[in-house]
Amino acid sequence: MDVRFVSLPEIDMDDRAFEVRKFASSTRLRESLARFGILDPPWLRKKGCEHIVVDGFQRLRWAKEHEARGAVCRIFPEDCDARELWTQKIEKKIFQREIDLAEKAQIISTLLRLFQPEEIPGFFLSDLKVANRQEVLRKWALLSATGPETLELLASGAIAERAAIEAAGWDKRSRDSVFHVLQALRCSSSIQVEIVEHIDEIAIRDEKAGADIIEDPQAREIVESKELNHRQKTQALREFLAQLRHPRLSSRQKRFQREIESLGLPSDVKIIPPVAFEGGNWKMELSFTGPEGLRRILDSAGSLVESDRLDAIFKTAGSHGRD
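RESULT FIELD:
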């Protein structure tokens, strides 16, 4: 390997065989380049009378934009093994900084192209926090092949990693639909996974595409609402999907809520049924600010307990069996 100044006309910038494309703009890199120029020499590989870029695409493009004559580069010989070059490049990229989901998908796709799954160096997958299971690696490769628009969305950080992996094998229309909904909702990673899993379960049960679920008129009305903020939209969509996924349980919950409201409980008293109305462990939650508030609540609750209205609700709640 040689280190020397290479003029830009000697570099074929259109050969992207070694590129791991960064879809998120690197403001920090551009600021550093503007202050100090290229500090870390790009990697080139000899190719006939020219050179192709192995590492440093953004730095060299910046140099070209600013009409630089060239840059000091590390030169690898033409007969240097491509797999060895990729191995070094991936090692450098993983330890250089935190990579985004789009880069991660491209790296794993490249590793699958270079190695059999069982031959991929374990330290790469360990550092990437990816299990060496074929079905997992295949989903990452599918994400890598989704196209620039989806990869740009993944690079933005709007989509949680596990949600992206769960939807990786969906048809393009369904995957694009759910990703854009998740982007609009701006909900947490765990809620994104819940939404994706519910859509997948409903689609499999009803033999539909995921897009048919998320593009349902009621779901679309929720997501496109002008009256709801993103948190309210998220909750409304979760409730809609839960109702589709567990219609009997959802119906029971609504009926129980109506019956509880008919009791006229104080707003600071809540009766909480067992999970899925299974089992006998009911709860009552009280909210109060002092002794007088507690006495008032207990007086109200006491008169309710002594009436037969509560007995009727408990019998109704426990008489439907399992969902």
